[in-house]
Write a structure and sequence with these properties.
- The protein is α+β, with helices and mostly antiparallel strands.
- The chain is 36% helix and 27% strand.
- The chain has a seven-stranded mixed beta sheet, with helices on both faces.
- The protein is globular.
Length: 301
């Protein structure tokens, strides 16, 4: 998921002293009016990291492959809460979660209506108010991770998915490049090598793993950023800056705290709607958000 490079790139802007030059290459997103009846500073700051699908050539079998010119879908979404005490938690949001607000449909497609509609949909569907918005597309995601020298991930089993251009032959902790990281967060129809046999991951499990990998890759980028030197940071941000969109402003000290934090990653246990891919929020999902420290009383103003 490109999602990951996002945090890295913004942090690079803050720490690399390149803001004036690079901000001209970055799109600015207007934030919608979102509210919470009892929200306080102690609730922390909420980021929505989005991996946009522009820059990806989809197979003819992809029923959602056609995208209006100049628009993109959300291939990956991660909510991150940065607490005032420096702690940070992340929730990977399934792209097939159904929005229940003015826009009705998968959250992934809400981005076609604009970032503001996506954030409004997160508010109405999940009850979470977004303070900062950051998105990046596939090209910027791959370039930024490669500029950092790759990221560290832990692979449970060798995995392959030709549709996502993913192929990892060995299990265990390893460094992967940007294209491989992108494959991990995009893979929906993967196969894993278990006891010498390639086993297909079910559609439901594939969707869950796709969401979970978004959080893991984000944490991998965060870790690389915290260790990178000035040259590495500058290279990463320059590689991804033209693919980057930011809403809610640039907050260097806040982002520096996020880069230093140990990211506590949670999965959102959404419920299936019938036999389709569509998912919905349930009490278990709301509890998971609360356990991760997110308020869920967002309202549209």
């Amino acid at each position: 998921m490109r999602i990951v490079a996002v945090a890295a790139l913004v942090l690079v802007l803050a720490l690399g002293g390149l803001t004036a030059v690079l901000m001209s290459r970055i799109d600015t997103v207007a934030m919608p009016e979102l509210g919470s009846s009892q929200r306080e500073p102690s609730d922390g700051t909420v980021y929505l990291f989005v991996g946009a699908d522009s820059g990806i050539e989809r197979a003819p079998s992809d029923v959602q492959r056609s995208t209006p010119e100049g628009q993109a879908r959300a291939d990956a979404l991660v909510l991150v809460r940065l607490g005032p005490d420096g702690t940070a938690s992340a929730v990977s949001v399934p792209r097939d979660l159904t929005s229940t607000g003015d826009y009705f449909g998968p959250l992934a497609l809400a981005l076609l209506e604009g970032p503001d509609v996506l954030m409004q949909s997160v508010c109405s569907t999940m009850g979470v108010a977004v303070d900062r918005y950051v998105s990046i597309d596939a090209t910027g995601f791959v370039g930024a991770i490669d500029a950092l020298g790759g990221i560290e991930v832990d692979i449970e089993h060798p995995i392959r998915d030709p549709a996502a251009e993913l192929g990892i032959d060995t299990a265990g902790p390893q460094r992967v490049d940007g294209a491989t990281a992108l494959g991990l967060v995009r893979s929906r129809h993967a196969e894993e090598l278990i006891d010498g046999t390639w086993v297909r991951v079910s559609d439901d499990a594939g969707a869950q793993r796709r969401a979970l990998w978004s959080g893991r890759v984000l944490d991998g980028v965060r870790a690389e950023l915290s260790d990178a030197d000035a040259a590495g940071l500058a290279g990463a941000v320059w590689s991804g800056s033209e693919s980057l969109s930011i809403g809610g402003g640039l907050h260097p000290f806040e982002l520096a705290r996020l880069a230093r934090a140990d990211l506590d990653i949670h999965e959102l246990p959404a419920e299936k709607i019938g036999d389709a891919r569509a998912l919905k929020m349930g009490e278990t999902a709301k509890t998971a958000l609360a356990d991760a420290g997110f308020r869920t009383d967002c309202t549209l103003e």
